[in-house]
């Protein structure tokens, strides 16, 4: 199970610790933050207590306008649920009363950089927590970004996955991961492909050795992560196994419950595999826009008859 702590947020976003520095190992289990609004007026039916609580200018201004007794009641009603932490954004001041309650309840109270707006911080924070806590698996293959879309290349060892990726880099595309590809499930329809950290920027080629693609070809040759759109399997050529149907029935590979369109490309000396991958990527993009070459061809035939 993935583990994310309050201390991880402090380090990632350079947050200032106002109180609770001895509680930074508190675990965060929900990948979304929450801005308490209805909770401040006493509505707790759907209060997500396991989420990081964000207090922006709107919330802090409201608390400042309350009387001392009412403020104590409103804050006390929330801190008793012991959320992982409170993060105050936009450089808000006058937080003495909030610091006191968080200290008494042992809840970390943190503060962001004053130049960052609440909405900007929430977007960045939620994105980080979602990716960190997302379910993930590691698969053997190569991940590349072609025309802005992620492609997972799979196949048996020695079939030519890394060599194909090297050719793709030469055509202006980007390497994401070689050998070990980490797949993260961000939503029921989204798989993110990335590296495991150790192999970042490295590409292993048989007979050549290990290459750092950024050092060799520049920063444009590498991308840290990409959304997987196609699963392409490279296989050895099998005589009489291919057919010339106008449009194959769509096939899919399932990763953590998410179906990714699958294509098999058989290898043979002289085949432009990189060109076929580019064609597959462009064809997939056209299909997403509602265009099918096979359907148009059939319409032309029907017109002649």
- Tally of extended strands? 15
* Spatial arrangement of strands, main beta sheet: 7-8-13-10-9
Amino- and carboxy-terminal Cα gap: 61 Å
Share of helix, binned? 25-40%
SSE succession: EHEEEHHEHEHEEHEEEEHEEEHH
Count of helical stretches: 9
Give the amount of beta strand, in percent.
25-35%
Concise account of the structure shown:
With 305 residues, this protein is an alpha/beta fold. It has helices at residues 6-13, 57-65, 68-79, 96-105, 118-133, 161-170, 213-217, 273-288, 293-304; strands at 4-5, 16-19, 27-28, 53-55, 86-88, 109-111, 136-146, 149-154, 174-187, 190-194, 202-205, 209-212, 225-236, 251-255, 258-267.
Task: Give an overview in words.
- The protein has 305 residues and is an alpha/beta fold.
- The chain is built from nine helices and 15 strands.
- The protein is elongated and about 80 Å long.
- The relative contact order is 0.11.
- The mean pLDDT is 91.
């Amino acid at each position: 199970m993935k583990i994310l702590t309050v201390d991880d947020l402090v380090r990632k976003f350079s947050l200032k610790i106002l109180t609770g520095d001895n509680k930074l190992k508190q675990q965060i289990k929900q990948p979304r933050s929450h801005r308490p609004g209805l909770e401040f007026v006493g509505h707790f039916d759907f209060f997500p207590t396991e989420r990081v609580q964000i207090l922006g200018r709107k919330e802090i201004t409201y608390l400042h306008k309350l009387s001392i007794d009412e403020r104590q009641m409103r804050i006390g009603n929330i801190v008793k649920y012991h959320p992982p932490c409170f993060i105050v954004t936009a450089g808000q001041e006058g937080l003495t009363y909030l610091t006191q309650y968080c200290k008494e309840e042992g809840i970390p109270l943190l503060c962001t950089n004053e130049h960052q707006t609440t909405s900007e911080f929430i977007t960045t924070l939620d994105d980080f927590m979602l990716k960190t806590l997302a379910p993930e698996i590691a698969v053997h293959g190569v991940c590349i970004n072609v025309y802005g879309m992620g492609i997972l290349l799979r196949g048996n060892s020695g079939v030519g996955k890394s060599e194909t990726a090297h050719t793709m880099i030469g055509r202006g595309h980007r390497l994401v991961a070689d050998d070990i590809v980490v797949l993260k499930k961000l939503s029921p329809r989204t798989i993110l492909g990335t590296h495991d950290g150790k192999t970042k920027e490295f590409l292993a080629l048989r007979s050549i050795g290990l290459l750092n693609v950024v050092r060799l070809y520049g920063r444009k040759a590498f991308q840290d992560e990409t959304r997987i759109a196609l699963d392409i399997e490279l296989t050895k050529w099998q005589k009489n196994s291919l057919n010339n149907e106008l449009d194959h029935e769509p096939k899919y590979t399932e990763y953590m419950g998410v179906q990714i369109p699958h294509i098999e490309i058989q290898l043979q000396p002289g085949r432009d595999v990189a060109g076929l991958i580019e064609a597959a990527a462009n064809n997939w993009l056209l299909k997403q826009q509602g265009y099918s070459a096979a359907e148009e061809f059939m319409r032309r035939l029907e017109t002649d008859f």
